[in-house]
């Protein structure tokens, strides 16, 4: 540890992302990427940008992309914010919108970046236990707080909270910002975007990394009341005026406009998820209901760590968390039919 480090960095336990292996041979079902490629129209739009245009800075306000997202959701462009992946959008949200004197509330089992951002920005936090079925109980989120955040569907559980519950949460909690992180919503959830004009304290975050197969491009977005968006713009413009490059702006816009391809990929993933769920069931797994592109499951007799290690030895990577209460669970991304089959064959060799 260097004596030149700030006190915050000395204490920081950075977020550890899932493994990104260098070997293409592996069946990678550990970080919830989409098994299908990006929209061909998005690829064409990105190819078109590659040329002399890259000499020039991109539009710092991302007006065209924000306009496209606004049109898609029938909102105004000043209700839309975009950033370099939803992780960056989230970083700005923690900076700009959560009150620092009171605890930020989030579930005890959730996206593990949230406590890291709290530490980084000096925000106190309180982890609210999920119920015995791993569901979020909105009645538990009524205490004094400096904001509330959770993914819907939640990660890594995949469990979905109904829009009526989110409405209830917003009704009782109108003093602080409620952030719904919808990274996985397109795989079976109901988006809270439809509520943003009713609740000035609601911010919805989405990403193009999952349902639009663009994890490598790094594009995330937030929608909400224009005053919330203005706060995010202020932080962004104090940090990096050009978070999205020209390739990302073009690719993201074309991907959002290609609704048919998006729907087709989501429908396939949802159908394959349900097929995989029943296959896992017959192999002795209890599988939580999932509205995401992954399944969260526990084997009825074998230890999750042993199963993960055996799969890894066979070239199949799934996610195992060394965390209280879920350390006997595996989170398995839904892959192509072929990838899911490789997973099942590997399990059959193990059992
Ligand atoms: N929120 C949740 C709940 C996630 O699981 C992820 C992906 N790890 C993200 C946000 C970040 O996604 P990205 O930065 O790729 O947009």
UniProtKB/TrEMBL annotation:
Record bears the keyword Lyase: no
Gene transcribed to yield this protein: hisC
Subunit structure: Homodimer.
Cofactor: pyridoxal 5'-phosphate
GO molecular function: histidinol-phosphate transaminase activity
Reaction it catalyzes: L-histidinol phosphate + 2-oxoglutarate = 3-(imidazol-4-yl)-2-oxopropyl phosphate + L-glutamate
Family to which this protein belongs: Belongs to the class-II pyridoxal-phosphate-dependent aminotransferase family. Histidinol-phosphate aminotransferase subfamily.
Modification N6-(pyridoxal phosphate)lysine occurs at: 210
Species in which this protein is naturally found: Spongiibacter thalassae
Keyword Transferase among record annotations: yes
Protein name (Swiss-Prot/TrEMBL): Histidinol-phosphate aminotransferase
Enzyme Commission designation: 2.6.1.9
Recorded metabolic or biological pathway in which this protein acts: Amino-acid biosynthesis; L-histidine biosynthesis; L-histidine from 5-phospho-alpha-D-ribose 1-diphosphate: step 7/9
Assigned keywords, A-Z: Amino-acid biosynthesis, Aminotransferase, Histidine biosynthesis, Pyridoxal phosphate, Transferase
Classification via Pfam families: Aminotran_1_2 (PF00155)
Residue span(s) of domain Aminotransferase class I/classII large: 25-347
């Amino acid at each position: 540890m260097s004596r030149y480090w700030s006190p915050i960095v000395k204490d920081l336990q950075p977020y550890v992302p899932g493994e990104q292996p260098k070997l293409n041979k592996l069946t990678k079902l550990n970080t919830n990427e989409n098994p299908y490629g990006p929209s061909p129209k998005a690829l064409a739009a990105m190819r078109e940008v590659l040329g002399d245009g890259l000499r020039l800075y991109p539009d710092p306000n991302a007006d065209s992309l924000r306009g496209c997202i606004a049109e898609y959701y029938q909102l105004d462009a000043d209700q839309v914010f975009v950033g370099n992946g939803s992780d960056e959008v989230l970083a700005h949200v923690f900076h700009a919108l959560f009150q620092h004197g009171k605890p930020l509330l989030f579930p005890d089992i959730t996206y593990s970046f949230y406590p890291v951002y709290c530490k980084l920005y000096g925000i106190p936090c309180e982890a609210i236990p999920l119920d015995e079925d791993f569901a979020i109980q909105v009645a538990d989120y009524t205490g004094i707080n400096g904001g509330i955040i959770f993914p819907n569907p939640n990660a890594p559980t995949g469990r979905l909270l109904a829009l009526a519950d989110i409405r209830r949460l917003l009704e009782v909690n109108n003093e602080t910002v409620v952030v719904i992180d919808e990274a996985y919503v397109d795989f079976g959830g109901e988006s809270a975007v439809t509520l943003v004009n009713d609740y000035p304290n609601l911010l919805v975050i989405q990403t193009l990394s999952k349902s639009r197969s663009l994890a490598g491009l790094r594009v995330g977005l937030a929608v909400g009341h224009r005053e919330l968006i203005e706060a995010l713009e202020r932080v962004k413009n104090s940090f990096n005026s050009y978070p999205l490059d020209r390739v990302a702006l073009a690719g993201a816009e074309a991907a959002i406009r290609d609704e048919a391809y998006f729907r087709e990929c989501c429908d396939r993933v949802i159908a394959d998820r349900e097929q995989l769920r029943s296959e896992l069931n017959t192999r002795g797994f209890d599988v939580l209901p999932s509205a995401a592109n992954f399944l969260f499951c526990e084997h009825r007799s074998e230890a999750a760590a042993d199963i993960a290690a055996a799969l890894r030895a066979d070239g199949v990577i799934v996610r195992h968390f060394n965390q209280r209460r879920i350390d006997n669970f595996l989170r398995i991304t839904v892959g192509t039919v072929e990838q899911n089959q490789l997973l099942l064959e590997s399990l059959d060799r193990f059992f």
